[in-house]
Design a protein that fits this description.
By secondary structure, this protein is α/β, with parallel strands linked by helices. The chain has a seven-stranded mixed sheet with strand order 3-2-1-4-5-7-6, with helices on both faces. It contains eight helices and seven strands, in the order βαβαβαβααββαααβ. The N and C termini lie close together (9 Å). It has a single domain, classed as 3-Layer(aba) Sandwich (Rossmann fold), CATH 3.40.50.10320. It is 39% helix and 18% strand. The structure holds zinc ion (ZN). The site of zinc ion (ZN) has 5 residues, from loops.
């Protein structure tokens, strides 16, 4: 397993705007505080989300991209890339593997954070089909695609050499084994979530919900009272 000092670059691959903020923004703020470079890669623009049916899909995609840029800024991230897949119909396709492999080879991260590809039967919310498809395609891109020069040879033609990601953190699974204490960064996580006004604007008690949920995770991890934590499953991939 990588120690914190071995993690110089982090790539987060998620399906929708706000996924990274619910799952990992507190941990991301800790990385950027230490000077670690963090890149977000969003597979869709979240154009099928939201509650304001006045907006057409094009308007929603643009709004959610700008919300994600603001949320990223709240935790010190300025490199945000969108793959532009349609929201709600993502599959674990070869094309998606190639597109994520391209970003891995461009960014050359030590650590990748993404969705678990497994269905969580204890808590269904993280098991959105887009999440499982993105998690599966990202793991396939980490191993073997990004490190294998014979996979997607067109990427070599783009000047993108093979790259070996050393570790992956999966979010949303039933059996997390790694807890990051985010007590010092929960306020910035909440700011990041607030940036997604089209999604959380209608939730009056959004902040209390978030504090309650991440306090529960800290308590389950045995971190003690008045602490907050984010949970992941660590996968060594070197
Ligand atoms: Zn999502």
């Amino acid at each position: 397993m990588l120690s914190e000092t071995e993690i110089n670059r982090v790539l987060v691959v998620t399906a929708h705007p706000d996924d990274v903020d619910f799952a990992a923004a507190g941990s991301i703020a800790r990385f950027t505080d230490r000077g670690t470079e963090v890149t977000y890669c969003l597979v869709t623009d979240g154009d099928a989300g939201g509650f304001d049916r006045e907006l057409d899909n094009g308007g929603m995609a643009e709004l959610r991209r700008s919300e994600q840029l603001n949320a990223a800024k709240a935790v010190g991230v300025s490199d945000v890339r969108f793959l532009g897949y349609p929201d709600g119909t993502v599959t674990q396709s070869l094309g998606l593997r190639r597109d994520i492999t391209r970003v891995i080879r461009q960014v050359r991260p030590d650590l990748v954070i993404t969705h678990t590809p497994e269905r969580n039967y204890a808590f269904i919310a993280p098991s959105h089909p887009d999440h499982r498809a993105v998690g599966g395609a990202t793991l396939d891109a980490v191993y073997p695609d990004a490190r294998n020069p014979y996979t997607f040879p067109e990427l070599l033609g783009e000047g993108l050499d093979p790259w070996t990601v050393r570790e992956v953190w999966l979010n949303g699974g039933q059996t997390p084994d790694h807890h990051v204490d985010i007590t010092a960064t929960i306020d910035r996580k909440i700011l990041a979530l607030r940036a997604h006004a089209s999604q959380v604007g209608h939730l009056k008690d959004a902040e209390n919900f978030v504090r309650g949920r991440f306090a529960q995770i800290a308590a389950a991890a045995g971190l003690g009272p008045d602490r907050y934590a984010e949970a992941f499953q660590r996968v060594p991939t070197a």
